[in-house]
């Protein structure tokens, strides 16, 4: 793969496109006479208020969850010490979490934790474009994707602190290999995207249910966050996968609505989130180089969890989130809509000094300190890995320049 992302992950998406598009045909949810609408989505939806206490109790009773907390707090402790501490931790968790009875209670506690995290791991969060949105309206936020947990969490934090409803978050089932992970995500308004489905019929059913659930959420005044493509943009290229937009339209086909009309009715908002510093930049560069040189990259069993933790506790410096214009005049096909959304996401991506430095573009904001910081990062990598780290920070600049150079219609 080249540092500009012309193969590897982008090709990975292309290799699966035929399978995905095969599944994107009209689908109707089969229900028995006794089934309610809520039952249909039970397998993928977040928890409701009445399910919160039981989910919290399952978490507290989960040995892996308790062990994970103890390992994080006491990484060098022995198994014997874990055995001694586990009952004390469970007692403390029950005492603390017994006050949480509803989804809103969960959101309030998450916001408190995020306030502390933002103070200790960022140089502050700014945002723009939110004033154009109606607090009473539900939206389908389609965002670029740099961090597994923090992208939707930080956007939710901005919404919450501006008196707007927080969103339901799309999360791939590849991140939910542990039961406690599923409990945590579904408590925090996450719904499951079944990426593990491989057989055409399974994919058809999974995509149909997902598309139906997204529309159902919007119609019941619940906003949605979903990434613009599967996986993070580890190469800094924020491009929307048209297959995501086609997935949205599966429910539209069932309702016999054209692609353009259905997209216009979803209140799609392209979102650009930019981090001055990516705590996982070195890891991403190493992974992309491994893909290029070895043809594959095998993740460790807990690598995604480790990435989530590093993304949360790592220094991100300044962060900016831009809420784009609502899509109201969609073209008649997914490819053209993807291009239009990419223009918004790229043009509204806030460029920091390190982006200009990595792209070797002159800027008054680039000083010797910025150059030294970039060089310190590069010094930790091999010669083969360095271009991938530079591309991670440079490609937002390069892509913005390409759009700027395009002739206006």
UniProtKB/TrEMBL annotation:
Record-linked InterPro entries: Plipid/glycerol_acylTrfase
Gene Ontology terms: biological process: D-galacturonate catabolic process; D-glucuronate catabolic process
Domain of life of the source: Bacteria
Domain Phospholipid/glycerol acyltransferase residue range list: 125-236
GO molecular function terms noted in the UniProt entry: acyltransferase activity
Pfam families the UniProt entry points to: Acyltransferase (PF01553)
Name this protein carries in UniProt: Phospholipid/glycerol acyltransferase domain-containing protein
């Amino acid at each position: 793969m080249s540092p500009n992302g012309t193969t590897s992950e982008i090709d990975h998406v292309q290799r699966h496109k035929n399978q995905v598009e095969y599944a994107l045909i009209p689908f109707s949810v089969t229900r028995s006479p006794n089934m309610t609408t809520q039952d249909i989505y039970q397998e993928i939806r977040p928890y409701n208020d009445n399910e919160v206490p039981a989910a919290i109790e399952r978490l507290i009773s989960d040995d892996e969850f308790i062990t994970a907390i103890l390992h994080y707090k006491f990484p060098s402790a022995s198994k014997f010490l874990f055995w001694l501490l586990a009952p004390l931790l469970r007692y403390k968790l029950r005492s603390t979490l017994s006050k949480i009875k509803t989804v809103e209670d969960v959101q309030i506690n998450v916001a408190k934790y995020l306030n502390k995290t933002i103070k200790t791991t960022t140089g502050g969060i700014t945002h723009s474009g939110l004033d154009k949105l109606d607090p009473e309206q539900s939206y389908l936020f389609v965002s670029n994707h740099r961090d597994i947990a923090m992208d939707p969490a930080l956007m939710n934090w901005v919404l919450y602190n501006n008196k707007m409803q927080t969103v339901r978050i799309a999360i791939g089932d590849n991140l939910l290999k542990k039961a406690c992970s599923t409990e945590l995500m579904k408590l925090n308004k996450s719904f499951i995207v079944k990426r593990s489905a491989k057989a055409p019929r399974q994919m058809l059913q999974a995509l149909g249910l997902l598309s139906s659930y997204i529309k159902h959420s919007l119609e019941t005044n619940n906003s949605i966050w979903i990434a613009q493509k599967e996986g993070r943009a580890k190469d800094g290229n924020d491009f929307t996968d048209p297959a995501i937009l086609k997935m949205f339209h599966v429910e539209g086909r069932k309702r016999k609505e054209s692609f353009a009309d259905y997209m216009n009715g979803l209140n799609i908002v392209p979102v650009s989130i930019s981090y001055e510093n990516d705590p996982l930049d070195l890891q991403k560069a190493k992974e992309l180089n491994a893909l290029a040189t070895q043809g594959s990259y095998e993740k460790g069993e807990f690598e995604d969890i480790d990435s989530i933790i590093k993304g949360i506790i790592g220094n991100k410096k300044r962060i900016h989130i831009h809420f784009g214009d609502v899509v109201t005049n969609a073209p008649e096909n997914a490819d053209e809509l993807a291009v239009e959304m990419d223009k918004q996401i790229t043009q509204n991506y806030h460029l920091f000094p390190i982006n200009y430095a990595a792209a070797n573009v002159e800027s008054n904001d680039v000083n010797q300190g910025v150059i030294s910081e970039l060089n310190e990062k590069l010094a930790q990598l091999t010669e083969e890995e360095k271009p991938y780290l530079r591309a991670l920070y440079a490609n937002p600049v390069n892509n913005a320049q390409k759009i700027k150079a395009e002739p206006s219609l």
